[in-house]
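Second opinion, please. Pick holes in both lines of this record:
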Amino acid sequence: RGSGPTASLGAMARRGAGAGSAALCVAWVLMAWCPGRLADAQPATAEQEFEVPGDQPVDQQAEAADAARAGSDKAEPMLVDEWDQHMEGFIPELLLTFPMQPRTDEFFYEDIPEGGQPVLLRGGFFASATDETSSIEFRIQDPKGNIIFQKPDDAEGLFHFVAKTPGTYSFIFSNHKWMQEKMVTFAVGKGNQTHLQSEHLTTLEEQVKSIDTTLVDIQTESTYLWIRQKSHMKAVESIHTRVLSFCVVEFLILVGISGFQVYYIKGLLSDRRVL
């Protein structure tokens, strides 16, 4: 690409100053900078200038670079958000960078012992080829062979899941390219070992507010229980008064009836005419 329109124009200008050369130069400039070519032209990058393989067309290499750049710009905010949400305080137990030959697979294993608590497994990977990002296939299989996570064609990714089934979990990388060697960086860790942060600490003011809230709740509950007890006591006293009044009235009626019976029987016995 170093022999562009400007270099050609300078070469032709040095060949002669005739009218035919001037006309040819003007025609070359108009052809080089016409609107149709400007619409089809793509901005040159460092990869396009210096790293274009000899056996690959320039247009295909430029399209591949633009697609990779567009994909990375789109995926970067999502990857950052996922890291902030799920990978905070991540400490890898394994951090490895290794080459992958074309048409090969690499396997990594993580054992989860039986009889233990479920374990949180987190990690990520990044693949590159000749100083640029390159996609790779990555998947995770549980001890039963089921695929629980998969990235079929990505240059980077994060994973996080809770391993509930004891056994051996497999992390598989696959390079399906025929002629391209890749460098893969892989990190994995167990547990959620978060670092101590400011939001994990409670200040004296927060503790005082918590105590004040607890005391207010206790006072409110005590007042409610006292009002409820007082209402029940009034109801019991009212019932007791009515029962006592009923008993007194019943006693008076019983005494009256008994006296009337005694008087009536005594009158019958004292009447001699009846006898």
